[in-house]
Amino acid sequence: MNHNEHTEPRIYELGYHLVPTLADGQIPEASGAVRGMIERISKDIIAEELPVFIDLAYQIVKTIDHKNKRFDEAYFGWIKFEASPVAISELEEGLKKDENVLRYIIVKTVRENTFIAKKFASTKVRASEEEVVAAVEETAVVAPVEDALDKAIEELVA
Amino acid sequence: MKTNTQCYFTANNVKLIDYKDVDILKKFLTPHARMIAGRRTGVCAKHQRQLAGAIKRARFMGLLPFVAK
């Protein structure tokens, strides 16, 4: 890939799979190694999601010690960062050498959040919050009436 | 001025289609995991190109299948 056409910094996103053979305790270390590679080339890490265990849609084959190993699951994480195009080839070399990285992808993206599924979910949440607020207001209106009724009953009994 | 509100992504003011948005991408696939043509989904040409790219990236990363069933 030719990264020499542009020299000004751009927003990139690295998505990566870590091999599922890692224990839970080793995940922060492995993802920290990937993050370290990015920190070496980038000053600005915009967003990040730590690796989560997922089922893959198909088997991914990786050659480890001259043997093909097949994986149905992986830990998937991503990091969005700003870097110059020249530094990306350095990053790619580092990722290829890392044995814990099953597969990776580096894409050009934008600084803003591009996850629309979450955005829609949050609007739904906001709508439900509004409903809750309305319900609370209704109960607040009802409460004084009940208090007045209680007092009236107490007066009648007395 | 008449605007095209048919396109799912234009209607939701999507700037860039993310390859990680698997739930959204799946809506534009057949049960055999093939992409549905823009003329069937009503997605505008600009977003159909972005969508195709995002689906291909998701397939490469094993988030979506190349073939199913």
Largest sheet of chain B: none
Number of strands of chain A: 4
Q: What would CATH call the architecture of chain B?
A: Irregular
- Which percent band covers the strand fraction of chain A? 25-35%
Multimer state:
heterodimer
Number of E strands of chain B: 0
| CATH fold-level name of chain B | 30s Ribosomal Protein S18
The secondary-structure element order of chain B is HHHH
Integer average pLDDT of chain B: 91
CATH superfamily of chain B: Ribosomal protein S18
CATH architecture of the largest domain in chain A: 2-Layer Sandwich
The CATH superfamily label of the largest domain in chain A reads: Ribosomal protein S6/Translation elongation factor EF1B
Q: What low-confidence regions of chain B span 5 or more consecutive residues with pLDDT below 50?
A: none
Bulk shape of chain A? elongated
Q: How do the strands of the widest beta sheet of chain A line up side by side?
A: 2-3-1-4
CATH fold name of the largest domain in chain A: Alpha-Beta Plaits
Q: Taking all residues together, what is the mean pLDDT of chain A?
A: 81
Low-pLDDT parts of chain A are 119-126
Number of domains of chain B: 1
- Helix and strand content put the structural class of chain B at mainly alpha
Helix count of chain A, per DSSP?
Answer: 3
Explain the overall architecture.
- The complex is a heterodimer of chains A (158) and B (69).
- Chain A is α+β, with helices and mostly antiparallel strands and 158 residues long.
- In chain A, 44% of the residues lie in helices and 35% in strands.
- In chain A, strands 2-3-1-4 form a 4-stranded antiparallel β-sheet, covered by helices on one side.
- In chain A, a hairpin with a 2-residue loop joins β2 and β3.
- Chain A is elongated and about 90 Å long.
- By secondary structure, chain B is mainly α.
- Chain B contains 4 helices and no strands.
- Chain B has one domain (8-60): Ribosomal protein S18 (30s Ribosomal Protein S18), CATH 4.10.640.10.
- The longest helix of chain B has 16 residues, at 45-60.
- The interface between A and B is medium-sized, with 21 and 20 residues.
